[in-house]
Amino acid sequence: MPTVSRSIIAAASVVVAFLVGVPDTTAGAQQPSHAGGTALGIVTTVSAAPFDSTLARLERAITSRGITIAARVDHAAAATRANLTLRPTTLVIAGNPAAGTPLMIADQTMGVELPLRFLVWQGEDGRARVSYDPIKSIAARHKLSGRDEVLSRMTGAIEAIVAEATK
Predict the structure, then answer these.
(1) CATH of 3-166, one of 1.25.40.10, 3.30.310.70, 2.60.120.1440, 3.40.50.300
(2) Is residue 16's pLDDT more than 70?
(3) Structure pTM?
């Protein structure tokens, strides 16, 4: 199966996981989500703060590291415009071309998954969460190799951003 098809399937799996519900985790815990018994690699961290504070902290943590927020998608507002109801759910798309471009040079299809996405959402229990797809999982889907140093640096930055947002 070509890499592009695998990426589309992975993206569809993430949507399915979100629609069927990402399992609750304890505050600060990170664990993969599952849909149909298959690990997707998505990491979800429960926040100690409410949704609005978590979203604001996430954006501050991103920009304070010199990372650019490329877009912000308010899924709940879009649902309202479609006469549907969705708990607060906002996707923050952010990246750093200095880190992402070398990955796309190695495999241009990485551009399907970059910039990175952070989903801030409110669970049925009212608690905010931040979910993301770890960069090493993304790279593995693309069979990217030889970029361990940049992937490790990106992993550290992503984990620090999420920790700061959810404390």
Answers:
(1) 3.30.310.70
(2) no
(3) 0.77
